[in-house]
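Support request, please re-run this one:
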Amino acid sequence: MILPIVAYGDPVLKKKAKEIDKDYPKLEELIDNMWDTMYNAYGVGLAAPQVGLPIRLFLIDPAPFAEDEELEEKEKEELKNMRKVFINPQIIEEEGEEWAFSEGCLSIPEIREDVFRQPDITIEYYDENFEKHTEKYSGLAARVIQHEYDHIEGILFTDKLSSLKKRLIKSKLANISKGKIQVDYKMRFPLAKKAR
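Re-run finished. Output below.
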C-alpha cells in the first residue's frame, strides 16, 4: 500500500526517532508499504519519519545512481545490488574529506542543493530479519545512507545548508508545508488549509 509522504514542516521530521524491537506491530507490512511508497515516488531511500512514524527504520535502493556514466564499474555494481533495510542503525564512524553532491528529498520536493558529507562510513544495523550487521560504505552508497540516517536523527538536508542558502529557499519551503506544490505522489502537508 502506498503511504502519504510527510511534507516539510511536519514536526515528525524534526524528532529523534526511537528504536524498535522485532515485535514492532506489523513491521513486515510497514516495510513492504515503505518500498511501495518509495518506488512510487521514484526515490532511492525512505525513512519511517517520512511516512509519519518516529522510529529508527529506513530503507534504500540506490540503483538509479548506477546509471551515472562517471562512476567506476565497481561502484555501479554495488549501487545496483544494494536494496537494504536498516533498523536501529548507528553510524559508528564517518571519515574522509567532505565532498559536495546535489541532494533532494521526497519530503522536500523540487528543492535540490549541494550538501557536504564525508565519503566513508561504518554503520551497525539490524536487517528486516533482525540480524545484526556492521558494514562499511563509500561514495554515493554512503551518502544515501547518511541522508536517510539524518531523517531518523530529526535532521533534514536543508539543515546542513548555509544561512544564505536557507534564506534563498525559505519561501519555497513555506509553500511546500502549505501544500502549494504539484507532486505526482501522495503527500501529507502539515499546514495545508482544510477544505470546508
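The chain has four helices and nine strands. The radius of gyration is 16 Å.
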